[in-house]
Amino acid sequence: MQPQRLKKAITDNPKKLGNLIDLVNLPSTLRDFLGQSQISRLGCFMRVWSYIKTNNLQDPKNKNVVNCDEKLKSILLGKQRVELVDLPSLIKLHFTKAPKSN
C-alpha cells in the first residue's frame, strides 16, 4: 500500500515520476562509483546515500553535512563538504536530459 502523498504525486504528474525511475546509461564517473552501467536517478541517489551512511560520512556535529571521502568527491564535483539539501542536485548533474520528442 502506497502512502496517500505518493499516490497523489503519481496520478498528478506521472511523467515527473518516470524521470526518477527510468533506467539511464551512466557516465564513467558514476559507473565507477556505483559499479553498474545503468540505474535510475532515484536508485543512484539511494546508493549514494547508502554509501554515506555505511562509511559514516555525515558530520557528527551537524548531521546535515556530509564530509566527502575521495571516492565520493569524484562524483560531487570535488567538494570536501556537501550540505544534504544539495546532494540531489549534485547527483542530478550527471544525468543528461533526454531530447524531447514531438
TrEMBL record:
**Superkingdom per UniProt:** Eukaryota
What SUPFAM superfamilies has UniProt attached to this entry?
SWIB/MDM2 domain (SSF47592)
Ranges of residues in domain DM2: 19-97
Q: Name one GO cellular component term.
A: nucleus
Any Pfam family: SWIB
**Protein name in UniProt:** DM2 domain-containing protein
**Which organism was this protein described from?**
Brassica campestris (Field mustard)
Lineage of source species: Eukaryota, Viridiplantae, Streptophyta, Embryophyta, Tracheophyta
